[in-house]
Amino acid sequence: MQSNSDGTGSGVVDNQTQDRLNxxxxxxxxTAGHVxxxxxxxxxxxxxxxxxxxxxxxxxxxxxLRQTSQHLHQQEQGMIAGYVDQVAERVESVxxxxxxxxxxxxxxxxxxxxxxxxGLFIGSAVALGFVGGRFLMSSGRFATASPSSTLxxxxxxxxxxx
Length: 162
What we know:
Layout (H helix, E strand, L loop, with lengths): L9 H65 L3 H23 L2 H14 L1 H27 L18
Helix pairs in contact: 1-2, 3-4
């Protein structure tokens, strides 16, 4: 064993340094574990609130479909009303499925679907993205448009200006 000028062995210093390094690594791993757990919990909470919003939206869609179906029945459009009823039932079925599962179960089911049927998964994701984008664009236009901007301007003579 080599001696330093103060008479201590370099092995002792190396052991102390290694012990300290191990402590720092353990602390870093513990901190990373806590941060990861917090991120997972926040993501789960956020996805849960998104799930609740989706359920609320689907309930609204199902109600609108039911009202449309009733209106079609009143106008003696029974065949079309039947199709609308079927769509409403499917929307209600999806809504009930979402209600009965927690976020982790839904994520697991989504992963299973993506593994088993990747084409269906990708196609569904594209379709949902398209429909969601169209919905957001249309709702954004109506939200930002004021009532006066939807009507053409009228001059003092009462003639519509274009």
